[in-house]
Specification:
The chain has one helix and no strands. The protein has 93 residues and is an all-alpha fold. The termini are far apart.
Length: 93
């Protein structure tokens, strides 16, 4: 015959085992959902990177174009000033 202390101990062990198994299953489902969430966040970050690259390309082209225009204007001013300088030099002589 089982002693009452042993019966209570067996009952406690069985209940704790069931609780631990249920908690293990819940942790598995939580980790699975966490993995899906991380996957979605990674996809959003990849899409954001693609959008950023597609926007930065035209902006850098516009920047290069503006730099080229500035250089062209500077060269034009340089030639204009050179003509004025040559005119002054020829007048002085």
């Amino acid at each position: 015959m089982i002693d009452p202390t042993q019966g209570i101990l067996i009952l406690v062990v069985v209940v704790l085992t069931v609780i631990i198994v249920v908690l293990g299953i819940q942790v598995y489902f939580i980790l699975r959902e966490f993995r899906k969430t991380i996957h979605k966040a990674n996809k959003v970050l990849d899409d954001t990177g693609n959008i950023t690259e597609s926007v930065s390309g035209p902006i850098s082209s516009l920047s290069s174009l503006a730099g080229g225009l500035r250089a062209g204007v500077s060269i034009a001013k340089l030639f204009k000033n050179k003509k004025k300088l040559l005119k002054r030099l020829t007048e002085d002589e």
